[in-house]
Write a structure and sequence with these properties.
With 249 residues, this protein is of the alpha/beta class. The chain contains eight helices and eight strands; from the N terminus they run E-E-E-H-E-H-E-H-E-H-H-E-H-E-H-H. Bound molecules: iron/sulfur cluster (SF4).
Length: 249
């Protein structure tokens, strides 16, 4: 008999509306190696066991509310879903047997082109990858997250080569990555990809500050104001313009 794979999750949101198309069951995995300065889920960072669940338990939960999940499906986010690739693969394999739309929201930081066997298995059952590009410049990315963006950009290229539908997500953080040059560079990079289905330019907010306090952590962006609507519109405009110019659209 095949060994049951369990997931270590942080929590489940029953009616998510911002993590993929439609209304979705959103699974927040426990554990993330990154330390993004603007992270609003620092409580998902620890790799210690939090809640152990099986794929069947999640699908049972999905079944119990499926009438309300309009045009949606299941999204696995984090934390970092690709830390628990085997569990997510089992969940998505079973979800696809029930014809449920599947999405992961990942930083892509663990991607390694030399070792894609487990990832490829997961991608067979994944309808959509939401990939967070946090900063287009490597040095700035390191300051923002503690990691290089090289693997992440390579993951975006890999998804394009494999023709996996991809949504790019980019959190606009005033004073950190809200810079016209960066937007143009991001747009040009995105133009090198062929599987992008959407671009989400997301506002930074500081609502997670109490979570940091509860965890005894210093909130790193205390002096940074939340992103305004105008800043998002401006950022989106510049990224799209650079994208269209590079694509010759
Ligand atoms: S990758 Fe996501 S969960 Fe991890 S630190 Fe960054 S924002 Fe937080």
């Amino acid at each position: 008999m095949k060994k049951q794979v369990y997931g270590n999750i942080h929590s489940i949101e029953s009616f998510g509306t911002v993590d993929g198309p439609g209304i979705r069951l959103v699974i927040f995995m426990q554990g993330c190696p990154m330390r993004c300065l603007y992270c609003h889920n620092p409580d998902t960072w620890s790799f210690e066991e939090n809640k152990k669940v099986s794929a069947d338990e999640i699908l049972k939960k999905y079944d119990s509310i499926k009438e309300f999940l309009k045009n949606g499906g299941i999204t696995v986010t984090g934390g970092e879903p690709l830390v628990q690739t085997e569990f997510v693969t089992e969940l998505f394999k079973k979800a696809k047997e029930k014809n449920i739309h599947t999405a992961i929201d990942t930083s892509g930081v663990l991607f390694n082109r030399k070792n894609t066997e487990k990832l490829d298995e997961l991608l067979k059952y994944t309808d959509l990858v939401m990939l967070d590009i946090k900063h287009i410049r490597d040095e700035e990315h390191k300051k923002l997250t503690g990691f290089s963006n090289k693997n992440i950009l390579d993951f975006a290229k890999y998804l394009s080569e494999k023709n996996i539908p991809t949504w790019i997500r980019h959190v606009v953080v005033p004073t950190i990555n809200d810079n016209d040059e960066y937007y143009r560079e991001l747009g040009k990079f995105l133009a090198t990809l062929d599987s992008i289905k959407a671009l989400d330019m997301l506002p930074y907010h500081n609502m997670a500050e109490p979570k940091y306090e509860n965890l005894g952590l210093k909130y790193p962006l205390k002096d940074v104001l939340p992103t305004t609507k105008e800043q998002i519109v401006h950022a989106r405009f510049l990224v799209f313009r650079a994208y269209k110019e590079a694509k010759k659209l």
